[in-house]
Every structure is written in C-alpha cells, then in structure tokens.
Design a protein that fits this description.
heterodimer; A: 337 residues; mainly alpha; 13 helices; globular; B: 298 residues
C-alpha cells in the first residue's frame, strides 16, 4: 500500500514537471485546449466512473459556463477569475435543476433525460440574444488576473490554465477518495444495499451531479478565455458525445484515464482537422471499437496489468438491474416448471 | 423585456396550418418512438442509430430516384428492405456481442454507429439538403373550407396512422406478437418451447430499423433529404419516449401524435418556445410521474 502510494507521488511529480515544461516543447494552445477538455472529462468521469450515471448532456454545463464567462468578461468587464466563478456557478445551478430532474430515473432513461435537457439549453443558446446566435460571443478579452497579471500572453495564460486544471483535478481526486467518494461508489455497486445502510442515495447522486456540473463549467469557462470565444459548438450534443468518448478511451472510473483520453482525442482533432467530417467517422469507429473490445480504456488496461486482474471500474460489465435478453427476467417466472 | 409575451389569437387558417404541421411532426415522432420501443422491448438497447437509419431511408429513396429512376412508391417498399438488411447486419455483427453487458454500452455503441453513418453522409453531401419531389399522384391539395390541405400531407397522416395501428395490432393481437411479448418477458423459457429467440431478436431489430427507414422515405418530400435530419429529430424523439414511457406500444403512438400537436400549437401562440416545449413538458412529467404516462415504474 505504502509502496503503491509512493509510486503515485512519483508519477504525479513527473507529470506535473512535464506539464510545466510542455509549452516549451509543444504548441501551448494545443495543450491548453487539451487541459480544458481533460478537466471536463474528469468532471464527467466523476459521474459515470464513480456513481455509474451516464450523462449525455454535459455539453449544457460546459457550454452555458462558456457563454456566461464570455458575456460577463466582455460586456460587464469582470476580471477573469470572477468570470470563471460566474460561469461555474451558473453551471452548478443548472446542474442542480437537471440533476434533480434526471435522478428520478436510472440507467438508459437518465442518459436520455440529460440529453434532452441539454438540447433545450442548446435551443435557448441558439435563440437568446446575448449568446450571439450562430456567431457566438467572439473576441472575449482575457483580462488581468486579480487586476495584476495580464493573461494576454500565451505562456502566462498557459500556467493559469494549468493551475486551474490542477486545482480542479485535485478537488476530484480528493472527492473520490473521501468518505463521500466511498458512499457514491457503494451506490454504484449496489444501490439498495447502500440505501438499507441508511444512505440517502438520491442526495449523494445529486451532490455528485452538481459537483460534476460545476467543474464542467470551470472547464467551459476556461475554454472560452483560452480561445476568446463561446459558440454553439460548446453546447451541442456532439460535445456531450466527445466527452463521453474521451472518458471511454482513457478508462471509465480511472483517475488519469479522462486526462489521457482528452489529450489523445484533442491531438486527433488537430491532426485530422483538414479531413472534415471524417473526424466524426473516426470518432464513431473509436466508440464502436472501445465498446466491443476495449471497455477498460487505456489507463484501465495499464492499471489492471499493474495490479494483476481486478474488476474493471466504471459501469459494471454485467447488467446490475433488468435482464439480459438471453436470461430470464425473474428467477421464478410464472408458468415455469 | 417581456413584450413578446403579448399573446394574440392568430387567424384560424394560420392556426390550422400550424396544427397540420404539428400533426405531421407528430406522425414522425410516433413512427420513430414506436420503432425505439419495439427494439428496446426485446433487445434492451436504446437504438441511438435510429435517427441515422431514418436518414438512411430518406437517402435510399433519393438514390433510387436519381440513379435507378425508381420513384416514391418503389422506394416506399425497397428502402425499408435495404435499410432493414443493413440493420440485421449491424445486429448480427455488432450488437450481438454486448447483450450481456450493462445497457449503457448499447447506447454508446449505437451512438458510435450513428456518428459513423452521419459522418460519411456529411462528407459526401455537406450539411445542405437534397430536394425530393412529391410523387405526381399526391401533388396538389384540396380546400377544406377552413384550411387548405395538401394531398401529400394528408397521405402521410393516414399512412402513418395505419402503420402505427398495424404494428400495434401485430404485437398485441397476433400469434407472432405473442411470441415477441413472451420473449420480452422471459427469453429462456420461450426458447425452451422451441422458438429461435436469437433469430427473433435479429428480425425484430431489422423490423424496427425498417420502420425508421419507412418514416425516412415518407419524410423525404416534406423535409429535405439531409445528413443531419436524423440527429435533429432523434433527441426530440427521446424526450417523447421519456414522456410516454417505453412500457407500451400504444403509449408511444399516442404521445408521439399528441406532442407533435402541442408543438404545433406552441408555434401558433408562442413561437419562441416551439423548439423547447417538448423538453419542458418532459421536465414537468418527470416531476409528476417519473415513469412516464404509459410506463411501468422501473
């Protein structure tokens, strides 16, 4: 235990050192984009990986926060840190309402409800006046952090993004390893048992949903400052699909998986940008591949090699409730001999 | 700020015209949610590819017309067969492998398939629509006194109603439907009675997909044939399914038509909300009756 704990610290130190040196080796804007999506994917993974809830509407939180930050910074003249707070607050508020509605249903229905609610946000963004419709909010100023540090420079902005990412990541890791994290994992594994032990499952689910939505909002706000743009792409269902894919590729329910997935898919989009719609096709192929033969994801596979064979994290391999088509729904079916 | 809330009663013909549009949309919601419900019943998979398969049906009709010169009526028969066979291949080659897994993987797999199909068509045709002419037999329209009813739209409403009721009858009132419902309840027992359940699952998926393709052919002359037509409608259909509940075939039909009408009415009285009204209703239904109007509590 102590041994693996030490390795984790070594790995974390190496990764942070790499991240600090990265802008001198790689294209900084690319890493900033990847970091925003990594935070987004980590926030999403908090739900799918640890509570077992598949939200297909996370673009609503990412996109609405992007719009709010862009608007408050550009029109109201708020400094960037307050703009990000405002974006995250609105995303968390939206998450409270959506989560409150969606946790009434489970499994597939949960996914469909979040998708539908997010589509509503998309239409609002399309029609509302302040979002600028098809143009989005362009030329968002990055402003001065705390009124002192000018974020206009790429390197300064990079370290700002890295700092926010690390804070967000630390919050998620902390939440997962806290008593709260243990309870949500218990709910994922066996909800009736968690309830019988006295845990209010719905409240824990809602809390996890709000946390996930708020952190997705931080990611969206950050993205709108990096690219100085908030647009309809940020709230569209394709964005919700992308974050699902990033997490799936990296490994559902693993701490580093979403980060790996986000970097891989962002890199893929950069390199294949000239291929137009083929990017969508490649994404679809990766989806199908992952679901059929690679459900543990990259980090999941590495982790299971490292730790011998263990149960994969994320949504359980076998259906927890309901029946597989090849098996009886109830053990004692009426009419059974 | 609330100046747009001044509701005015529009002239009757405009209102009936919007109601007609709503009824047409409702017909497509009903046909698509019906297929989703049939597939979900037996496969326990939410078929995210449904929208893409609807789009495939429309494109199939378009190809038949522009390459082979086969018109609407042939397309109405051929397109569902072609797309249905594609569906059967998908079930045999891909879906089969994930039945033992959590249902969410089915959603993710079919989502990936939808991305592939739509991506390929968008690469070929861009985002703009291809026109598809109304068949000559159904051109024109008649004046009903209070409104003008185009013949093609009347045909779509009647045909979709017949289609929905036939599906309902097949599932609820025939021997084949009884096997289907039994296999939904207890596949192992049905198999023990000598019925080939895996083949039934394959054919059910094929039939559900064919239904989507048929809806696509019927939609081709109304909406343009566009690679995005499927993804635009499928999310709304998901909301319809949540409102109606997946438990009953009749529920899918009724909620499809009803929500189309509600959407049409909203367009008359408060056009700004016409895109979002179905989602708002979904939220309200979740508050009052989480299992949906016709659903069984999960």
């Amino acid at each position: 235990m102590a041994e693996s704990g030490r390795w984790k610290w070594v790995l974390a130190t190496i990764l942070v050192a790499l991240a600090l040196a990265a802008p001198f080796i790689l294209y900084p804007v690319f890493i900033m984009e990847a970091l925003c999506f990594a935070l987004f994917a980590c926030a999403f993974n908090l739900l799918i990986g640890y509570v077992g809830l598949l939200s297909f509407g996370h673009a609503a939180f990412f996109g609405s926060a992007a719009y709010i930050t862009a608007h408050t910074v550009k029109v109201w003249g708020l400094p960037p840190e307050l703009g990000i707070l405002a974006g995250a607050a609105v995303a968390a508020l939206l998450g409270t309402v959506f989560g409150w509605l969606a946790i009434r249903r489970q499994g597939i229905y949960f996914a469909m409800i979040t998708l539908a609610l997010a589509q509503m946000v998309y239409f609002v963004a399309l029609q509302a006046r302040f979002t600028g419709g098809e143009d989005g909010i362009q030329a968002v100023p990055r402003g001065k952090l705390l009124g002192v540090v000018d974020l206009g420079g790429t390197l300064t902005m990079y370290y700002f993004v890295l700092a926010i990412f690390l804070i967000g990541f630390a919050v998620i890791v902390r939440a997962v390893h806290s008593p709260f994290g243990q309870v949500i994992k218990a709910i994922r594994e066996n909800e009736p048992r968690a309830v019988s032990l006295g845990y209010d499952a719905d409240r824990y689910k809602l809390l996890a949903f709000i946390l996930s939505a708020g952190l997705s909002g931080v990611a969206g706000s950050l993205k709108s400052l990096v690219f100085q743009l908030a647009s309809l792409t940020d709230v569209q269902w394709t964005m919700s699909g992308e974050v699902v894919l990033m997490t799936l590729v990296g490994g559902l329910g693993t701490v580093l998986g979403p980060v790996v997935g986000a970097f891989l898919l962002t890199a893929m989009q950069h390199y294949f940008a000239q291929l137009g719609s083929w990017v969508t096709v490649v994404q679809g192929v990766i989806f199908v591949f992952c679901v059929l033969v690679f459900r543990r994801g990259i980090v999941g596979v590495i982790a299971s090699y490292a730790a011998g064979s263990r149960n994969p994290p994320g949504i359980s391999e076998t259906a927890a409730t309901g029946a597989k088509p090849a098996e009886p729904r109830t053990a004692a079916a009426p009419g059974a001999p | 700020m609330f100046d747009w809330l001044h509701l005015t009663i529009p002239p009757a013909p405009a209102m009936f015209a919007q109601l007609l549009v709503g009824l047409i949309n409702g017909a497509f919601y009903a046909m698509l949610s019906l297929g989703l419900a049939v597939i979900f019943g037996l496969l326990n998979i939410i078929n995210f590819t449904h929208g893409a398969q609807y789009m495939l049906g429309a494109f199939c009709a378009w190809f038949l017309l522009n390459t082979l010169g086969l018109g609407y009526w042939s397309a109405l028969i051929l397109a569902p067969i072609v797309v249905g066979v594609v569906g059967i291949l998908i079930e045999r080659l891909l879906l089969r492998h994930i039945y033992g897994l959590d249902h969410l993987y089915g959603l993710l797999l079919t989502f990936g398939l939808a991305l592939i199909i739509e991506g390929v068509f968008r690469q070929q045709f861009g985002s703009s629509g291809q026109p598809y002419a109304i068949p000559p037999e159904l051109q024109g329209g008649r004046n009903l006194g209070f409104m003008f009813l185009p013949n093609y739209r009347a045909w779509v409403i009647v045909a979709s109603l017949v289609l929905c009721l036939t599906t309902w009858f097949t599932i609820e009132r025939t021997r084949l439907g009884a096997y289907l419902r039994a296999a939904t309840e207890n596949p192992v027992l049905v198999q023990a009675f000598g019925i080939n359940v895996p083949r039934m699952i394959t054919l059910t998926y094929g039939a559900g997909v064919a239904l989507a393709a048929l809806a696509g052919v019927m939609a081709a002359p109304i909406y343009q044939v566009s690679p995005l037509m499927g993804s635009n409608i499928i999310i709304t259909v998901f909301a319809v399914v949540v409102i109606g509940g997946m438990g009953s075939i009749l529920g899918a039909i009724v909620s499809g038509f009803a929500l189309g009408l509600v959407e049409g009415l909203t367009k008359v009285f408060y056009p700004e909300a016409s895109n979002t009204v179905i989602f708002v209703i979904m939220a309200l239904v979740l508050l009052v009756k989480p299992a949906g109007f016709f659903g069984r509590a999960s």
